[in-house]
Amino acid sequence: MFSNGDDPFAWIAKSEVYFNVQNTPADLKVNLAKHCMHDDVSKALIKEGKEEAPTWEGLKDALLKSCSGGEIASLRTKVAQLERDLRKAKQETSDKEKELKQLKDTEEKMKPKRTEIIYDLLKSVSKVERQEARLKARQNSSRLGNVLIRYRWNKGDGIDAEAGLSEDILIHEEIYKSRLASIKREEEIALQEFHLYELEKGRLIREMKRILGEDASQFNNFQILNHRYVFLNLLGKGGYSEVYKAFDLVEHRYVACKLHGVNAQWSEEKKQSYIRHAIREYNIHKTLVHRHIVRLWDIFKIDPNTFCTVLEFCSGKDLDDVLKETPILPENEAKVVLFQIIKALVYMNERMPKVIHYDLKPGNVLFDELGIAKVTDFGLSKIVENDVGSQGMELTSQGAGTYWYLPPECFEQSKTPRISSKVDVWSAGICFYYMLFGRRPFGHDQTQQKIFLEHTIINAHEVEFPSGSTVSNKAKDFIRRCLTYDQAERPDVLTIAQDSYLTFTQE
């Protein structure tokens, strides 16, 4: 049937009839029986016109009978080689599976060790940072604590009133003028030194408060919380919260962990209200994903009275700290910061549902390591339902917020105020004014209580600018638009974002 040297399996493989992908193993066997065997063998395997799939053993016997002795020997050799190759392949597969299992087991065993090494490194670095911070604070305290600012008047040479010589009078007049100019220069230098002293003193006070807060915190022992966050150093402390720099062992990145504490002395109703407020903030913040908004990564419970929100870590300062060190920013720098804030507000008003921040202020604008500005703290933010219309939504939390940055409509007492994104436009205008002039336009030297009692913001009908400033008229006009007293006339976020002042052209 086959010529010498022919491979019966190769011959079969050439035919689509026998290896059609639609054929079942039974079909294949029948086809082989039909076309590869003598007629008497085929008849023995095909009964009464009804095809019945033979067994592999039967097929093998039939093939052996239909082939010559040389062909049988060749087939047996090839089959034996195939069986050896198959056994070898199975053994190699088994070896690889064992090797893979060993690698997986080794990886699983090394995981705790790797985490321990990362933890130890982070702990060591953080300890060094703590020691350096305390040493620097002690050095500054020793240095700054002994600084005294004194103004000394050096009495000049008086003229003899009885001399009566005009030449002497003129000479002494020039001496006095020269001395007065010298004193003014000394005064300017002294004021600059005093300003630097006040800045350093302020930094020292804040750092000492931070260190004291860190030493008193129950989370200062490098705990690993929620099985992934290594608490490192305290960043800041508020009334009922602490913010720690931490390291995420799962995502391998630094994060900011904000700890919210519920006062054990509170009533159950107040506790539940606080928790509802925090969960509401989380539900709003977690949906906001934008380059100029601090990301909220996670939230978890620590104990019945404490829970934690995990935020994007911004290694730079906040705008409030920047303004304490540099009270007046160059207009273009301030404009760049404002532009980024407006970008965040636009995102919040183009999404559905819209979000009003309601607490936009320098302390809630952070900077990352690249100097990118990011808006944070959505504790007072409002969700704007789609059906509120152009009149805005009712303000249900009157009295909350930071009064220097809120518009007049938030202080309306005769009826329930209605607010919109125009609240954030007013706040952005106040922030911009602060960056350019080193003070807030309304109630700068007043307390929140005094602002409320004296109706400072309600009476803020028109913004005034300091004389002698180098700020452009375009910037002043932009601020006037943001601080338009009448809410109906004030532009909303999407409108102010199109303002011509917010365009940048290459000079």
TrEMBL record:
Residues 72-109 form a coiled coil. GO terms for molecular function: ATP binding; protein serine/threonine kinase activity. Keywords: ATP-binding, Coiled coil, Kinase, Nucleotide-binding, Serine/threonine-protein kinase, Transferase. GO terms for biological process: chromosome segregation; intracellular signal transduction. The keyword Transport does not apply. It comes from the Eukaryota. Pfam families: Pkinase (PF00069). The keyword Signal does not apply. ATP binds at residue 258. Residues 229-502 form the Protein kinase domain. SUPFAM superfamilies: Protein kinase-like (PK-like) (SSF56112). One of its GO terms (cellular component) is nucleus. This is Tousled-like kinase 2. It comes from Medicago truncatula (Barrel medic). The lineage of its organism: Eukaryota, Viridiplantae, Streptophyta, Embryophyta, Tracheophyta.
